[in-house]
Amino acid sequence: MSAMEYNIWETCLNEHIIRALTSRFTYLTDKDEGLELLRQEKEKGFIYVEALFHKLEIYENNTDTYTTIEDFYPELLSALD
């Protein structure tokens, strides 16, 4: 991550989340394209992006419980355990 100048953990985490969300949104429109984008992000060194990507499915299936992504944030972070 430092090669991409993500030297601060919070910035690194936010980049992982943004890339997971982008891959997931793409996946919902075009599964193959979304999986390809996810693969590319992993190749770039975003090692937690896949766990976050899969955790977002819980959010998608439980919008009655998690009305905003902010509500889901603690659960999303649990993907890093």
Structure commentary:
With about 80 residues, the protein is mainly α. It has helices at about 10-30, 30-45, 50-60, 70-75.
Nearest-angstrom radius of gyration? 13 Å
Shape: flat
Query: What is the distance, rounded to the nearest whole angstrom, between the alpha carbons of the first and last residues?
Result: 19 Å
Please trace the helix and strand order, writing H or E for each element: HHHH
What structural category do the secondary elements indicate? mainly alpha
Query: What's the main sheet like?
Result: none
- Estimated helix fraction: 55-70%
User: What multimeric state do the chains show?
Assistant: single chain
- State the low-pLDDT regions, or none: none
Please indicate the percent range of residues in DSSP E strands (runs of 2 or more): under 5%
Report the total helices: 4
Topology, number of strands: 0
Mean pLDDT: 91
How is the topology of this model organized?
Blueprint: H1 9-29, H2 31-43, H3 49-61, H4 69-77
Give a brief outline of the structure:
By secondary structure, the chain is mainly alpha-helical. Helices cover 69% and strands 0% of the residues.
Supply the key terms.
single chain, 81 residues, 69% helix, flat
